Amino acid sequence: MIAKLKGLVDAVGDDWAIIDVGGVGYLVHASSRTLGGLPSVGQAIGLHIETVVREDAITLYGFGDVAERNMFRLLTSVQGVGAKVALAILSVLNPNDLQNAIAAQDKTAVARANGVGPKLATRIVTELKDKVTGLVFQPKGVAGAAVAGGQTVAAATADETVVADAVSALVNLGYRPADAHGAVARAYQELGEGATVATLVPAALRELSSV
Q1: Burial bucket for residue 20 (CB in 10 Å: 0-12, 13-18, 19+)
Q2: What's the whole-model pTM score?
């Protein structure tokens, strides 16, 4: 199985790229997010690869980071979600935003992807809810935030701590981690950056009571 490719960008299409590794061109399918991050033709690149083997084909799917590859694996574990649909979803939602959408049960965000209707979006957020709970919740805008004199990182860390504390508080009240995670995610989306534990917990409890 091919797990990673390092080579030169040979060509790029709408949903694929050819990576030249020692004179051998590998056709790799990828999300528009990954393709948009590729360097110019002739430049060096490294991609994480998911190899899918079927009776009639061996297909390579490329990802710029492990988080996107892991989300691809989660998505394709859902019935009705093939590789093409998974890449479409990852083209409109980066791994962080997708994780948050699943935690918040935001089927509308997932349904923005081509080929994803309301029923499939509902199935995705429902089936993957418990599976993303173990991942670290990232307040929107935290992942990949630029450093500006250390202030951006400090603010991001503070928001992560607030979210983690709010989830912990709900779990201590007897709620399931998956439910607590989702309620806090929805509450955070509503309150926005700067939310405190004191405001998040009551808002999350209201979310839980409305389910």
Answers
A1: middle
A2: 0.70
Domain finish residue from 74, 104, 132? 132
CB 10 within 8 A of CB 25: yes
Q: What's the rounded Cα separation, in Å, for the pair 15 and 58? A: 17
In the structure encoding, which two tokens stand for residue 136, read together?
């670290």
pLDDT digit string (tens) for 129-152? Answer: 878 755 544 555 444 333 333 333
Output phi, psi for 121, to 5 deg. -60, -40
Domain hosting 186: range is 151-210
Structure tokens at 39: 């360097």
> What CATH number is attached to the domain comprising 106?
1.10.150.20
Q: Which two tokens stand for residue 145?
A: 């935030």
Residue 30 domain-assigned (yes or no): yes
Residue 107, Cβ neighbours under 10 Å: how many?
20
Continuous segment of H or E residues that includes residue 11: strand 4-12
Q: What is the mean pLDDT of residues 44-51?
A: 95
Tell me the CATH number at 158: 1.10.8
C-alpha span between 182 and 185 (Å, rounded): 5
Tell me how many domains the chain contains. 3
54 lies in some domain: yes
Residue 133 confidence (pLDDT): 59
The per-residue pLDDT for range 56-112, each reduced to its tens digit, is 889 999 999 988 999 999 999 999 999 999 999 999 999 888 988 888 888 999 999
**Which residue's structure tokens are 């009639």?**
56
